[in-house]
Structures are given as C-alpha cells and as structure tokens.
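Hi W.,

Here's what went into the run:
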Amino acid sequence: MKTTITVIAMALLVQLAHAGKDLNEFKDVQKVKVTTHWGDLEVIGTPALETEDFSLEIRHTDSSNKPSFIESNLDKFVSIRRVGGQLFIEARDPVGFESIDMYLRVPSYIKVELELLRGGNILAENLSQGLEINSLNGSVEARDISGNALITAANGEIKASFKQLDAEKPISLVTMNGGVTVSLPENAQRDVKLRSRKNGYVMSDFELGTRENITNLNQAVYSKSPIRNSATINGGGALLYLSTENGPLAIRKYR
Amino acid sequence: MKEQESYEELVEQLKQLPKKEVSSAVNQRFEAMEELWNKETHRKSSNSPKWYGIAASIAALIALLLWWPFGTSIQDHYSAMEDASDKMAIIHELSAKTLQDNDVAWLGDVLKTEENPNIRVFILDLLEIHESAETHDLLNPLQEENVPAVQMAYLNLARQFESEEIMDQLVVFQRRTDLDPSVTEKVATIISEINNN
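Here's what came out:
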C-alpha cells in the first residue's frame, strides 16, 4: 500500500515538474527571445543531458490580484513562434492591469535574450551561451553564467556572476538607477570602464591596473562627483563596461 | 614500464654494434650520381623560358590582390557581424584610438540603426569622451529613442555641447509623455544649464 502511494506521489511530482508548455520540439534552435510586459521572468538553464528540459510555465495575476498557474490554454497568454533558428515567446499585450510571470527552463546551450517592457524582476541562471537583457523596472540578476552578457536596465540594480568567461566577448552592464555588481573568475582578463554619474563608489576584489585615481575605491562612501575611469584586470582583455547614472559599482571574484 | 626497459636495452645493444663504412666503390657510385643530378637540375633551370617566371609572378600578384583584405576597416568588420557581442567588441577596439571625423560620422550612422541598447550606450559614451564629436546631428536619433538608459546617454552627450543649438531638440524631446522621471529631470536640468549660460 505504502509503495503504491509513493509511486503515485512521485508520478504527481513528475507531472507537476513538467506542468506548463513542453517546448522540447524546439531544442534545436540557437536562440530564444522572450518578451513580456508586466511580471517576473525566470530563466533556468538545464545543462546536463539527463536533466535537459525545455518548458514554460506561466502564472497569471489579474486585476483582482489573484495569481494562478495556467495549466491549459497557455496560448491565450503567450504566443510561441519559431522563425528559422530562433524561438520567440511573447506575452500578450496587457488586458487591463495584469501581470504574467514566466518560468522558462531551457537547455543551457541555447542563447537567451530577454526583454521586459514595463516592470518585473528578472533572474537568469546557468546559461552558457551568452545572455542579452533589456529591462525597464525591476532588478536583474544573472547567476552562474558562462560566456558573456549585455544587460540594460532602467530602474533597478544589476547583478551578474560568471563562472566562466568567453575571453573574446565583452560584458556590458548598464542601468540608470541602481548599483551594478559583477563577479568574475579569478583569472579573468578585462579592460574595465567604470561609469557612475552620481552617488557612486567602486568596490573591487581585483587589483585594478590604472594610473587614474578612482574616487572612493573600496570605500563605501557615496561620491557627489561623477566616477569615470578606465582600468585593467589581470593585464587587460575584452571589455567590461559597468555604467550607472546613480549608484555604486562592484567587481567581485566569483566564488 | 617493461616496454620502456626493453627499448632501453635495445638502444644499448645498437650502440655496441661495430661502426662500419660503406665500400669505396659504393661511395664513388653515389658521388657520380649526385654530380649528374646537380648538373641536370642546373641545366633545366637555366633553359626555362623567362616568360614562365613572369607569368608565375603575375599569377601570384593576382592571387594576392584577390586575397588581400582591401577596405576591411573596422566599419566593414562591424557590418559583417550579426552578434551584438561581436559588434560591441569592435566598438571597444575603436575606443582605443583617437576618433577621426569619419569615425564619428560612421558611429552616428550606427546609432540610427543599431538595435542593441548596450551598444548604443557604449557608442554615446565613446562620443562623449572625444572632443571631435561636436556635431549636433548625433543627437537626432534621441527623438525616436525608447530605452531610458540610452536616452540618458544621449543627454549626457548633449550636456557636453552646452550650446543653444541643441535647445530645440531638447525641448521637443521634453514634450514626450512617456519619459521616465529620471530622464525628465535630466533634460530639464540641461535646458536650465543652457539657459543660465
């Protein structure tokens, strides 16, 4: 009896884990572009063959503020279309005040581009083929990324940690309001450009090679004057561009 | 390990073999053949028609002309790229040198067509550093720009001009109703600064 219950429970768990839209038929695309208006966006890379999965779950919150996972008729909320080697996942234009949270599991070898047009938080994790994000309101976190990233935000901080870098490709993290934190492997070689127009300071775990005087380097004291410096890490290399209009900058070692 | 030992043993045995020279007859025959071969080679090369060498040189020159990357400037490389990261790497390359007028004009063109906001911000940042970038036409795309961080980068560039010539552009931009409050504040500050000057 116990065994039967366990088997049923496991089957239910597996079913729950695969709830939402199965996208495995699109595993051969090179790039996925997700566009949404309001709502959180979570994209998790599935690296190992045995755990490789390509699926989308969505949670809809209507004007009465009641969130619910959409089990069927997902196509009513998002459109999914393939054009050549690219897959486009687009949330519908908001109907009244609504938000659509998206939870995407994607094979990590697929390149990902995310666009959040109005507001919500973004988390992208474990992606190995580079990442592009353009967000308006909300924080952006790219965790345990390999390759490189180009991220733009308006109102919200950016955090990006890289477990491995593509030595030839740039990293660009730009926000208007909020701090920018990047974590890099200890042996990373980069040409660094630091921009903080106001309320900035720079924290760095790496020794920054520069003849310039970097205002408030490794001192958490907000500067009233703009910070605009160039430096190198481990002798220099591809570009690391960190820019904010308002906030501090930090370069950490990946741990 | 055993294999290595047996090889070492074999080498030792070979070293102990008596050194033996070939017979003088064999040696003489070899020298005669070598002399004949040298003479034959020399005769063939001296008898080759001169046009053969000229044709070979022309063919090599044509091949070189076809292969040589004429016009593969940074701009050409950029146009050939599809990936935004690769494009940005090229702009980074450009940032290492002093911008010439043609570079600035080209960057202005890229701003009108480039889709990636990170690249647009980086280009505007680059133009802000270089004094040669004093051309107000660069601000024209601001009116169509929708990404706040890029709008802000345009305004940072505009601030460098401190000129009444850009006032009309700023006033038109300020009328937009979809601006982020930070952008609205920034454009108002710049207009005020220009008026006060």
